[in-house]
């Protein structure tokens, strides 16, 4: 592609008459004209997410980016400037806030989520009318599958299942963008970016770690929601993850081009994650320069680098001048990003984009508030109910409503902001909702049940100065009283009774009671105690008393300028600085106050749960799924004081509430984030709405030891309901209703249900639900399959069961039987067969189950599928090492880059000639933990004839440390030629790796 020389500043044309602005032309033709008109300097300036104006072409400054996880994030603090000192956000654009995505997914209502996405898309368009510099390319939804409940960003995702996530996140995409793939081919309301591609489910060390993912898990699980959201919903953008997969950092992964574009058909652009360019070089050390980082990203198919625009331009310029990229690479990236911009209507002279007419005031409308309430209502999950709920409504006919209600707990009257949420005008707490529904005739007592304490540092009390900063005084009468909350895992917060605000560590080292809630990239409102008894701020620096009596963080380093990109550390002073020993004097015991309130009440609502930025958020995983001990103690005290206690759990992830499940009569779950959370909770407690949400994740409970969070092996780790075979606290899909329902199959065709996989049949399953109660309620029908047992000596492992379809039937009346038809496409049944290196739908007789959860099956039938039987692994062909049947203690790493000076060297690929026969994503298997061997099992061969040998390959034709081949219990040592003789009749074998062994492929000759 030719490019023009640099233009002089006075070369300006009448741009609106150019093909770029002519909507009658195909988008591709307009883009190609633009690429011909841009100079090389123009092009190099347009590779970052924030781009400058090019006046002669009518191109204004524009920013690709902005969050929209559960509403438009328009707080104006994501650039690191932060909120005001008191935590307020005076410049925020107030937008409608829905429940966290994990809560939206709990609705199991795809049609509702499409409406929710449309709400967010409309508000993004309205804000663009106010400030037309960006905000139309939104980084949502997060479709990373939540195979580990300790992930710090669990609230952002849609659960652990690819079918559910694909359906729910895909619906949100359709709403955001204005329709499906065909509807949005030429016009987008908003561009939705799926994140984070891929195998991104650990925060701790995410910028330096690599996820080891075998071929089956990769294809069948981790990549599946991206495929579904691109092919079925038409997602127009993808964001790559910080982490590496099998040793290749994701912004350099060839699968961006080959899989997202080649197989999935992405029509749009790909962006890196924020600051990833610098992190790849500075933190990970994968490249020699930023120029090399940018070059590899462009070669892999990343179109837009989200980082400092000046630095991106400099790096891209260097890469171009050094020949690491050519004009074709640059044009390809701009072709994709400008295609999206044209679909958004940024260069429409006649404003033909139908979504451009959204008025600037179409934000937080009455319609949007009603929809937010419906989404929140449908997201509530009734985990347990022994008949306590619903409470009788005040003034209801019959029965006696409660006259005294105690709303008790740290979440009773608190609403917490989250990092990727917007700032709504409404912040309905649980206490707000109960007060509103109870009315003036009911006594509603509210208490946070927190201890009231005095703080002493080296024997002196903490008091507040006129500026709300902490000072040390000798007189207890001058001491400030604080409400202490222990969030578990050592995280403490303190709220001043004088100011009603949280203590926070300021950037000058002082500590002040000025924040309205814990919030920020660095949550400076959290403190913890170290082993020496010192109180430490969020960055592990101890608190001390200076010579003037000020209580400060030890040290003196300014914090304000230290947020660069996506930081991994944030220092103030030094963690070894000497602090003042903390003593806490308890003035009032919160559980004692709570117990008295509970005993005097007719009913108790225990409001407990999480703050979305404490003990788990972006850049911080949860240490465990444990319930905070202080909250557990509170619930025990409340139940002992009053058995009529309903627990409301505000949580965005599974929590180990085993004791509570056994002893508390009713438990209602809500995600955080919704502006009307408290109102919806109160409606559900009192029966104004009937909760019918379902869990999108398995709650394993305290009795299950979870695998290492860095272990991405789904089958070997027994991950999710598909592969876990033991008891759990709450199964995937669990959720109760106020009405008992029966589930049954409808009228079936003669001969039962049959389908042909080769014909890509869709199985139509008639189902029915009947309401046998006296309450109108929604009902969710979940359909699962159990796979046929395949014959053979070494069958492919199959899941315990797998979700293949679901439907939420709304407002089923008492006595009503509602019929529906579930559509189950063949792709929901397919597996990735590593033995043939491709997908197949297993042939045979399936069990099709329907019910209320994966653990509550109400009806089963047989389903005959004409699919594909297993085939033996091939002989004489190289098998990529990641196409194992099972692996243990194995790390997959990238094959080294070949050392040559050509531009092609920017693509990681094996140096050994054997890899000409392997896929582009071939990798090396090595031992993960050096204190024990690693194993790789390969099965599914025809019984071996005499004379068969196993041959191994590596990146440099040398294997390294010795490898043993194991057949059954017999270990076989390699012959002098490096091959392993196989006993006659062998159908499977295991490679045992030790030390520095490196294997990229296996072949049986």
TrEMBL record:
GO biological process: arabinan catabolic process; xylan catabolic process
Ranges where the Fibronectin type III-like domain occurs: 779-854
GO molecular-function terms, A-Z: alpha-L-arabinofuranosidase activity; xylan 1,4-beta-xylosidase activity
Pfam hit, one: Fn3-like
Source organism superkingdom: Bacteria
Record's keyword terms, sorted: Hydrolase, Signal
Alphabetized SMART domains for the sequence: Fn3_like
Keyword Hydrolase included in the entry's annotation: yes
Segments of this protein annotated with the region Disordered: 1-21, 72-102
Similarity comment text for this entry: Belongs to the glycosyl hydrolase 3 family.
Name this polypeptide is given: Beta-glucosidase
Species this chain originates from: Bifidobacterium choloepi
């Amino acid at each position: 592609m030719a490019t023009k020389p640099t233009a002089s500043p006075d070369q300006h044309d009448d741009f609106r008459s150019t093909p770029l602005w002519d909507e009658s032309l195909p988008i591709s033709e307009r883009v190609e004209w633009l690429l011909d008109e841009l100079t090389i300097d123009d092009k190099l300036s347009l590779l970052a997410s924030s781009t400058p104006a090019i006046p002669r072409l009518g191109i204004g400054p524009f920013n690709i980016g902005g969050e929209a996880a559960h509403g438009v994030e328009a707080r104006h603090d994501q650039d690191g400037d932060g909120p005001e000192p008191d935590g307020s956000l005076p410049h925020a654009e107030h937008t409608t806030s829905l429940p966290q995505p994990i809560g939206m997914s709990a609705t199991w209502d795809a049609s509702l989520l499409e409406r929710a996405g449309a709400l967010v898309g409309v508000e993004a368009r309205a804000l663009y009318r106010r400030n037309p510099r960006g905000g139309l390319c939104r980084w949502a939804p997060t479709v990373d599958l939540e195979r580990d409940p300790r992930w710090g960003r669990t609230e952002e995702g849609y659960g652990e299942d690819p079918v559910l996530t694909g359906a729910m996140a895909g619906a949100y995409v359709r709403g955001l963008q204005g329709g499906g793939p065909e509807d949005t081919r030429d016009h987008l309301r908003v561009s939705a970016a799926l994140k984070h591609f891929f195998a991104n489910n650990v925060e701790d060390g995410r910028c330096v770690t690599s996820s080891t993912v075998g071929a089956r898990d990769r294809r069948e699980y981790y990549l599946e929601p991206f495929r579904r959201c691109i092919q079925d919903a038409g997602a127009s953008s993808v964001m790559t993850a910080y982490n590496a997969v099998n040793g290749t950092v994701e912004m350099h992964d060839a699968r961006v081009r080959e899989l997202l574009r080649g197989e999935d058909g992405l029509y749009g652009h790909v962006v890196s994650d924020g600051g990833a360019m610098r992190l790849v070089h500075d933190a990970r050390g994968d490249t020699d320069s930023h120029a090399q980082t940018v070059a590899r990203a462009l070669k892999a198919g990343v179109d837009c680098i989200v980082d400092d625009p000046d630095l991106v331009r400099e790096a891209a310029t260097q890469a171009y001048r050094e020949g690491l990229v050519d004009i074709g690479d640059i044009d390809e990236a701009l072709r994709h990003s400008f295609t999206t911009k044209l679909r958004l209507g940024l260069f429409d002279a006649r404003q033909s984009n139908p979504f451009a007419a959204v008025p600037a005031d179409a934000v937080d409308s009455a319609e949007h508030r009603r929809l937010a309430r419906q989404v929140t209502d449908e997201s509530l999950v009734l985990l347990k109910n022994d008949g306590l709920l619903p409470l009788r409504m005040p003034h209801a006919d019959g029965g006696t409503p409660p006259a005294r209600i105690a709303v008790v707990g740290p979440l009773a009257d608190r609403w917490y902001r989250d990092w990727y949420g917007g700032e709504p005008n409404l912040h309905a707490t649980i206490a707000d909702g109960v007060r509103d529904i109870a009315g003036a005739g009911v006594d509603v007592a509210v208490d946070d049940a927190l201890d009231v304490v005095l703080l002493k540092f080296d024997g002196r009390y903490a008091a507040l100065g006129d500026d709300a900063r902490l000072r040390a005084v000798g007189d207890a009468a001058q001491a400030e009283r604080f409400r202490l909350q222990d969030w578990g895992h050592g995280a403490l917060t303190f709220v001043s009774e004088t100011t009603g605000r949280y203590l926070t560590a300021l950037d000058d080292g002082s500590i002040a009671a000025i924040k309205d809630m814990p919030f920020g990239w660095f949550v400076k409102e959290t403190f913890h105690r170290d082993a020496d008894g010192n109180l430490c701020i969020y960055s592990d620096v101890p608190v001390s008393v200076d010579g003037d009596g000020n209580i400060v963080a030890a040290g003196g380093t300014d914090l304000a300028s230290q947020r660069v990109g996506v930081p991994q550390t944030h220092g103030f002073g030094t963690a070894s600085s000497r602090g003042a020993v903390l003593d806490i004097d308890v003035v009032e015991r919160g559980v004692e106050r709570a117990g008295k309130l509970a005993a005097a009440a007719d009913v108790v609502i225990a409001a407990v749960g999480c703050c979305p930025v404490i003990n788990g958020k972006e850049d911080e995983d949860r240490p465990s799924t444990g319930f905070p001990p202080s909250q557990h103690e509170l619930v025990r005290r409340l139940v002992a004081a009053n058995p009529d206690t309903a627990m409301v759990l505000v949580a965005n992830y599974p929590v180990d509430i085993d004791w509570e499940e056994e002893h508390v009569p009713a438990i209602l779950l809500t995600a955080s984030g919704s502006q009307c959370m408290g109102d919806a909770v109160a409606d559900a407690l009192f029966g104004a709405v009937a909760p019918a949400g379902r869990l999108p994740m398995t709650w394993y409970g305290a009795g299950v030891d979870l695998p290492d969070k860095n272990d991405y092996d789904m089958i070997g780790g027994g991950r999710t309901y598909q592969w876990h075979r033991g008891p759990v606290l709450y199964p995937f899909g669990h959720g109760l209703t106020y009405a008992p329902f029966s589930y049954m199959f409808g009228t079936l065709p003669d001969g039962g249900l049959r389908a042909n996989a080769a014909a890509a049949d869709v199985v139509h399953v008639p189902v029915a639900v009947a309401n046998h109660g006296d309450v109108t309620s929604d009902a969710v029908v979940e359909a699962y399959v159990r796979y046929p047992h395949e014959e053979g000596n070494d069958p492919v492992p199959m899941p315990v069961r797998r979700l293949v379809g679901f439907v939420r039937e709304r407002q089923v009346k008492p006595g009503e039987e509602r019929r529906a038809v579930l559509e189950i496409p063949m792709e929901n049944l397919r597996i990735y067969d590593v033995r043939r290196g491709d997908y197949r739908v297993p042939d045979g007789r399936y069990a099709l189950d329907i019910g209320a959860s994966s653990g509550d099956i109400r009806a089963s039938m047989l389903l005959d599928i004409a699919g594909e039987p297993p085939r033996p692994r091939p002989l004489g062909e190289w098998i990529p090492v990641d196409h194992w049947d099972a692996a243990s203690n194995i790390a997959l790493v990238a094959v080294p880059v070949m050392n040559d000076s050509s531009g092609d060297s920017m693509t990681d690929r094996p140096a050994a000639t054997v890899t000409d026969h392997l896929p582009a994503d071939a990798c090396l298997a090595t031992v993960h933990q050096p204190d024990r061997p690693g194993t790789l099992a390969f099965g599914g061969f025809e019984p071996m004839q005499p004379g068969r040998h196993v041959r191994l390959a590596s990146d440099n034709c040398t294997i390294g440390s010795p490898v043993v081949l194991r057949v059954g219990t017999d270990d076989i040592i390699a012959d002098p030629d490096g091959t392993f003789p196989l006993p006659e009749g062998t159908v499977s074998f295991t490679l045992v790796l030790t030390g520095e062994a490196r294997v990229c492929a296996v072949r049986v000759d």
